[in-house]
Design brief:
This protein is α+β, with helices and mostly antiparallel strands. The chain has 2 domains: 203 residues, Up-down Bundle (Alpha-lytic protease prodomain-like); 69 residues, Alpha-Beta Plaits. It has 8 helices and 4 strands. A 4-stranded mixed β-sheet has the order 1-4-3-2, covered by helices on one side. The longest helix has 32 residues. The two termini are 23 Å apart.
């Protein structure tokens, strides 16, 4: 059995951790200010945004923890290291975000049924400051490496940015027209917008945890690409999965014409797969004693060789 490994993401992970910690400090600090202003002004949009920023802080804290954990080297108990931590945090952040959406929706419906007075001027000023801070935090996170972990944190921040926009518009409308219903209506609209992104991230993290084939790769096409290399007669037991956002892994059995050519075949196949972004390989050579075929499970082409 032969393997190939690619490392060297430590600097990117460290930078992500630094950005996450800085974003955490900004977000948590302003959340306290916004919560106080929301309670004093009676604005559900501000209170909802403050609550969202608190969950953002939790999300950013978890993401920073995951970025730190991913830098830990492999050990005898965790042969891949702790890279899967980022996937778990992406899942946790998605579920946390769903909880925020439910809470905002329930509160908004209650406010529609029983309207309350809101001080539009206070809401406008605080929401504008919050918008500026959220833009800054989103910019900081977008500069780092885009993993499931940081994307989960960025999703929270972008949702909060939309919440700040909603609170700002709400404050302006209430100040100019006195229409109080705009506050919960905008809250419901923002909750719906955040829901779509949250479900998309949740499905992606679940796909990764189930060791599904990465969405940007095709198992069938990669099988054909391997089988098309010189001296490779067929491919079987082909598996392709994501260890983390930084590492895609592949294992396969290759039936080769001559085991004496294996070193050359290995280098050739590895170069082909590395070019596709697959950097962790486990390839098993097998002699051409009998023809072994590979096809997708349930395929009509079962038994058809992946050949030159």
């Amino acid at each position: 059995m032969s393997e190939g490994h690619t490392h060297g993401h430590t600097q990117g992970e460290a930078a992500s951790g630094t950005h996450l910690l800085a974003a955490l400090a900004l977000t948590l600090g302003f959340a306290a200010v916004e919560a106080g202003a929301g309670w004093w002004s009676g604005s559900l949009a501000l209170l909802g945004d403050a609550g969202h920023m608190v969950t953002d802080s939790v999300s950013l804290g978890l993401a920073a923890l995951a970025a730190w954990a991913c830098r830990k080297p492999a050990s005898s108990r965790h042969s891949y290291g702790l890279q899967r931590t980022e996937v778990l945090m992406g899942l946790l952040n998605s579920l946390l975000m769903l909880g925020v959406i439910v809470a905002l929706t329930v509160a908004a419906i209650g406010r529609l049924l029983a309207p309350q007075a809101v001080q539009g001027e206070t809401v406008t000023v605080v929401a504008f400051i919050g918008l500026v801070i959220n833009i800054l935090v989103a910019w900081m996170l977008s500069r780092g490496e885009q993993t499931l972990n940081t994307r989960g944190a960025l999703l929270h921040v972008l949702g909060d940015l939309l919440g700040s926009v909603a609170a700002l518009v709400s404050g302006l409308v209430i100040t100019l027209t006195g229409w109080m219903a705009i506050d919960p209506i905008l809250t419901l609209i923002i909750a719906a917008l955040i829901l779509a992104s949250t479900i998309r991230l949740l499905l992606e993290t679940l796909h990764t945890l189930m060791e599904g084939v990465p969405h940007h790769l095709s198992l069938k096409e990669i099988g054909h690409a391997i089988a098309a290399r010189p001296h490779v007669r067929s491919v079987h037991d082909l598996h392709l999965w994501t260890v983390s956002s930084r590492q895609v892994a592949l294992s396969a059995h290759l039936v080769v014409e001559d085991l004496g050519e294996w070193e050359r075949v290995l280098a050739d196949v590895a170069a082909t797969l590395h070019g596709l972004g697959i950097d962790h390989l486990t390839l098993q050579p097998e002699p051409l004693l009998r023809q072994v075929h590979w096809a997708e499970r349930g395929s009509q082409a079962k038994g058809k060789k992946l050949a030159n």
